[in-house]
Amino acid sequence: MAEVPKSPQELHQMQKLFAETAMMPFLFNKDVTFQPDKYKKDIVKEMVPIKGIPGRKRILNYNQQYWYRLFTVMQDEYPLLAYLLGYQEFNHLVSDYLTACPSHHYSLNFLSDDLPAFVQDNKKWGNELYVEAIRLERIFIKAFDALQAQDDLSSIPLTQEDLAILRDKGIGFQPSWYLFEENWNLVQLRKMIKLVEDPEELKEKPKVIKSYWCIFRKQNRVYQEDLNRTQFLLLQQLSKGLSLIEAFEQLESLLVETEIALIEKEVSHWFTRWVSLSWFTMPKSK
């Protein structure tokens, strides 16, 4: 078998210098400016003019397009955060984040994997509102990308054996199913932002409110279902792999009498609704 030729070391060094130059961050002051004076001199020297465009200007084009592409991707994935910050400040956050945590994956799907940890620990960006907004939008991203389990309870006839398993061992949940507890009206605000053509024209401000949601994918679309506190706590316990009886035992210390009575009255209606939304699967192990 013929030996695969190795590229010369000089090429690797040239590629490294070019990448560092193309990734040169912008300056975010009152206006956004570029930093062509900081481009690697060896790369500038090697970039020959084409059609009258000097080498430094050619690199500037790469530098601009690199960041514009990443800003656009992140704005699409984090429309709520971009709205809360404003687009220039959002791009500033993205620049700080990707400069500190550059992606090493060929796919842009993993571009923001480290964003929650970066913002959480950052003095400039670690605002509680922004942290919660990022957590919400990460859920939307993960729900959309998750594989869908085939043993969906809404689409399979259950035998008596299956029903016994669900009673005794608990219930499974689709990988695209998530619970979200919010302290601001972020779910509704994000929905409004997604519906308007130009979010910058919106004048809505986040309102302090405690709400509970299920975010899930069904037929390749991500939805949000509002829950009351009792439903949320019940689903939270069931998602740990507890049986219904075990979940009730855990909830006794968390719920007041009116909430316990609500479960006893409405639980069968809740499950009928939730099964129809394709939230549940058979448990992983039988």
How would you describe the overall organization of this protein?
The chain is mainly α and 286 residues long. 51% of the residues lie in helices and 12% in strands. Strands 4-5-6 form a 3-stranded antiparallel sheet, with helices on both faces. It has a two-stranded antiparallel sheet with strand order 1-2. A two-stranded antiparallel sheet has the order 3-7. α3 crosses α5.
Main sheet makeup: 3 strands, antiparallel
The tally of beta strands, per DSSP, is 7
Q: So what's the overall shape?
A: elongated
Helices and strands, in N-to-C order?
HEEHHHHHHHEEHEEHHHE
Class derived from helix and strand content:
mainly alpha
The helicity comes to: 40-55%
Average pLDDT metric: 89
Taking strands numbered 1, 2, ... along the chain, how are they ordered across the largest sheet? 4-5-6
Q: Could you list the spans in which at least 5 consecutive residues all have pLDDT below 50?
A: none
The helix count comes to 12
- The end-to-end distance, rounded to whole angstroms, is 49 Å
* Gyration radius, rounded: 25 Å
Question: Beta-strand percentage?
Answer: 5-15%
